[in-house]
């Protein structure tokens, strides 16, 4: 007596599916065994390499459920990548796909096409496909168009989907054979097999040069499906370039809200190396931080840009939104106002006598000389030098009356007051050292130069330095993530006291 599996049990669906995948010889030989034997050995039998091929339904080709085909072809070499993805996920992640696959766009395309519906097609119902009897599902097809000239930006455009992965003349090539067969059982082992089958980057894949366009589009779609992008995890310079091109691509397809956090997460993994790179190239990372909506990178770069302003203006003009430039100018104005208030306090610093009176030439001549020297040093280092006076004014476009060409008056270079304030915040022998004090005393007429005079003069100057150090403390604050060391300045010749508040980020407006 031959026993058959009970059709009322829930395991029949798996039995029927398994039977379809088996070779005829295997199916006939197993028919002579009992149902219990079939169920006991089903999970341990491998059918890899059989005559039948089951299409994949995973990234990047969802054969059973995908409804948007995307073909990305390199400009040179003929290499291309094909994707069969879901309209729902693409529309949620990208405003470009949301508009391109909308009903309004479909009606507009249908009205402009006399044939009606050449842009959109419907997937016919296939028996045994598990579609549940759905009568025709819309499908879309996009191809990368490189344009006509070198200045054209490659862009995805909609094409006729009749000849595509959906069943036309273009067929899907089976995936390459795996080293190990995947188990047909469901559950944890099946999930791990699917995970290992993903097209993740490996060391062997890096042997051939990767086309940047193919890489960027692949990273874009990988992030859409919550897979980590293939970005350089070691070389931060390469990672910056890859993140920059990916962000520009996401900006084209209105997907910065999805791509930005991934780029931010990847770059922040470099930690200290990232902040050193930002200090080297603040304008570049300011633009990248704006595109990625990264508060850490944007505020770090903005602090450097404001401290060095206007050095970064040529790299930011006409390359960043007006809101970013307005924010920079506002922060620069705030910093200048603070510096002016500090300068006024420095010039008002004074010493007092033992009776509590302000020093003057009548009650403390040596202390008054110390105050004069200190104020003179501050004035010389915080005020631009006066323009030179030309002996003969040029006429006729820079030519003198004799006809010879006269040199044009050079514009005095701007003084880096940030470095001066850092010296004041450091104090000690950072400025006005002992040798300079001695030279000043020697050149002062009517003053007896001896050891006691030098000692008293040094004490007065040192007292002024302590007062100045307390005065410039608001400018010595550091709002960088970069470790500047114990000195607080870390060798930076500009101020880093600019703080970016939550309300300052321009993308929250």
TrEMBL record:
Residues 38-47 have a biased composition (Basic residues). Residues 393-411 have a biased composition (Polar residues). Residues 23-36 have a biased composition (Low complexity). Residues 1-59, 104-138, 167-186, 384-411 are annotated as: Disordered. This is BTB domain-containing protein.
